Amino acid sequence: MRPFKHESARRDHYQELTEAVIAKLEEGTPPWRRPWDPSKCAAATSPMNPVTGRSYRGVNALALALSPLAFAGDPRWMTYRQAGERGWQVRKGEKGAIVFFYKKLELRDRQGDDDERRTIPLLRAYTVFHASQIDGVPELGAPMAARPVPERIADADLIVKASGVRVEIGGDRAYYAPASDHIRMPPDEAFESPAARSATVLHELGHASGAPHRLNRDLSGRFGDTAYSREELRAELASYFVGSALDLPCDVPNHVSYIQSWIKVLKSDTREIFRAAADASRIADWILSHHPDHGESRDPASEDEPSPAPTEALAA
C-alpha cells in the first residue's frame, strides 16, 4: 500500500476521523448503522481488500463505513498502487477513503554513556478506493444467498450458550450485571422480532466480555458518566462488527442521550475513537470465538488494523 505523500504529513488524522464521526452523530444516526435490515438481504460482507484477501477491521471498518459507498453491495477496497499493479485504473477525479495502521518507530535516547532505545507507534494513513471507482475491476459476481433468518438466530443462541454467561428472563430492561455476571433480558414477546432479540442479547454479551476474567475492561461506570459512555460506545461498535459477521441487525435502540454522551467523549479526546474501535474489535473476536465457524475464521490483528492509540504516538 502507498502512504500519503509528504504534504499530508502535517495532517492530524486522529482529529479528521473524530470530526467525521462526530458530524454523523450530530445528524442523529451513528455512521456504522446500516440503513436496512440485513436479516432480509443476501449475505453481508465486511469491507475487504481483494489483493491481500484481508478484511478491514477495527477503526478501518469504521472509517470505511463513513463513505457513501460503504453499503453499495461491493465490499472491495484497495489502494491506487494495488489497482495499477493489476492493470486496473482508478478513474480521474475519484476521491478515496482513508484507512490506518500503526508502524513501529524506534527512537534512540542518549543519556551520558547510555544508549537506550524505545519504540513508539507511528500512525500511517493510506488512501483506498472502492471497486466502483476503478475501471477494469472484474465483476464481483452474484452475492451469496443468505442463510434463512432462523439459522442466523440459531448462531446467536449458540454463541450466548457457549459463552457461559447466564441469561435470566424477566422485567422490561435488558442489561448486564457485572456483580453477578449475568445478562437480564425481557421476555421474547417484548421484542419486535427474534432478530431484534438476538441483536440485544449479543450487545449485552459485549458488555459481559469486559468482566475481569474475560477482557477486563472498566465496567464501573454509571449512566451519564464518562466511563459508562466509553463502555457503551465499545459495545455499540462491537454490535456492528458482530452483526456484520452474522448477518443480523446491529441496531440496538439508544436514547438520544447516548449519542450525545459519545459526542462529548470524542470531542474531549481525538484518539478515543481509535481505542474504542480496537476494543470493539477485540469484543467482537471474543463473541465470535464461541462459534465454531466464525471463531476459526477470525484473523489476528495485522498491519491493516491499528491497535489502541497510546498516549505517546505520532501521526504521519
Structure description:
The chain is built from 9 helices and 9 strands. With 316 residues, the chain is an alpha/beta fold. The strands form 3 sheets. Strands 1, 3, 4 and 9 form a 4-stranded mixed β-sheet that branches. A 3-stranded mixed β-sheet has the order 6-8-7, covered by helices on one side. Strands 2-5 form a two-stranded antiparallel ribbon. The chain is globular, with a radius of gyration of 20 Å. It starts with 12 loop residues before the first helix and ends with a strand.
The major beta sheet can be summarized as: 4 strands, mixed
Based on CA inertia axes, which overall geometry fits?
Answer: globular
Order of helices and strands: HHEHEEEEHEEEHHHHHE
| Helix coverage percent | 25-40%
Name the average pLDDT.
84
Number of E-type strands = 9
* Gap from first CA to last CA: 15 Å
- Estimate the strand proportion: 15-25%
Low-pLDDT parts are 1-8, 298-313
Structural class: alpha/beta
Number of helices: 9
User: How many discrete domains?
Assistant: 2
Rg from Cα: 20 Å
